[in-house]
Amino acid sequence: MAGTAGTWSLDEGDHRRITEHLTELLKETSARCAMLVDRTGQLLANAGEQLSFDPTTFASLTAADFSANDQLAKMIGEPEFASLFHQGEKESMYLADIQRRVILVVLFDKRTTVGLVRLRVKRTVDGLGKIIDELLRRASEPAGDRGPSLLEGADDEIDKLFND
Amino acid sequence: MSMINYASREINCKLVYYGPGLGGKTSNLECVYGKVAPDRRGKMVSLATETERTLFFDFLPVDLGTIRGFKTRFHLYTVPGQVYYNASRKLILKGVDGIVFVADSQLERMEANIESMQNLYDNMAEYGYDLTQIPFVVQYNKRDLPNASSVEELQGQLNPGWEVTDNSLHQEVPDSIHEGEFLIQQMDGVWIQRAPYFESVAITGGGVFETLRHVAKMVLKTLS
Lengths: 164, 224
Prior knowledge:
The complex is a heterodimer of chains A (164) and B (224).
Chain A: E1 7-10, H1 12-29, E2 33-38, E3 43-48, H2 55-75, E4 83-87, E5 92-98, E6 102-108, H3 114-140, H4 155-162
Antiparallel strand pairs in A: 2-3, 2-6, 4-5, 5-6
Helix pairs in contact in A: 1-3
Chain B: E1 2-5, E2 10-18, H1 25-35, E3 45-48, E4 54-67, E5 70-78, H2 86-92, E6 98-104, H3 110-126, E7 136-141, H4 151-158, E8 162-163, E9 173-174, E10 182-187, E11 190-193, E12 197-199, H5 208-223
Parallel strand pairs in B: 2-5, 2-6, 6-7, 7-12
Antiparallel strand pairs in B: 1-2, 3-4, 4-5, 8-11, 9-10, 10-11
């Protein structure tokens, strides 16, 4: 809808394809886990080790981190920083932009190196980029062409939920 | 931008609390955090200065219930109110699905309220978002203070309404919260629409959930 941020959706097939790419990346790099986060801070998918932190909060901070760095890039005359690397004593993270709409986050430890992660991430970014393209194309289609929306006709249910 | 995730069966939406510094945006989130059962909310994150002023944002995810088997997850954000943090403020608005403008009712904060409201319109416009099209409510906070302006004065200054140009909407819409008032009405021959408004005392929780419930409902209705 014009004038608003709009809506997009991720179905089970999209989720499976995204997870396959993330799992493949983890296999190739021996990284601990990988996540896909959209630029507004929402977690789309994750793969790998069970997370010991709240992924929702992590996703919102990831998006904020990337947004702040984008602005810093512009200030020094760069169009963007397409990737970021945060190095810790034991754990590190590598973040890569995909189509300026989502961020791939890879958490890894000493079992691998940033060089290998950086190398393998490139191919994953290409693969995921195609899926994201498709999702965005679907989201930009007129609502009528996408079939009935999930909440179509749910006005009464929404009223009931919020009128307690 | 709301996101419907069929794999995790969640509807995720982003709400932003906007307004002048020290107006009560963070207090709104703290109140929600304190009153929502722990299993229905995440951790509250505050990127604040050492003096507890919001530097970048506060963040709190809450589940407000289930519709059609999908959890409705609202990500609540505040922006830093202080004028010089505009770059951060603008970043937080990216992909916003609903806005709560938290105004400080104190007489001496009227100018700051107006400036912040103008800043909200400007920042939204830079993203191509239109405040008249997006779920938007105004909350008049600190109603308990003796130096609070009247609601009429605040409405006149901060929520005077915008002209409704779509003829199909030219009919009176009563304000379900304030008896005898209207969200859409004809005034001096012109049809105008105002954002719904709420009175609050965020520090003790008064009006906080009414505001949240209302804006959340408006957001979900845009998806229905």
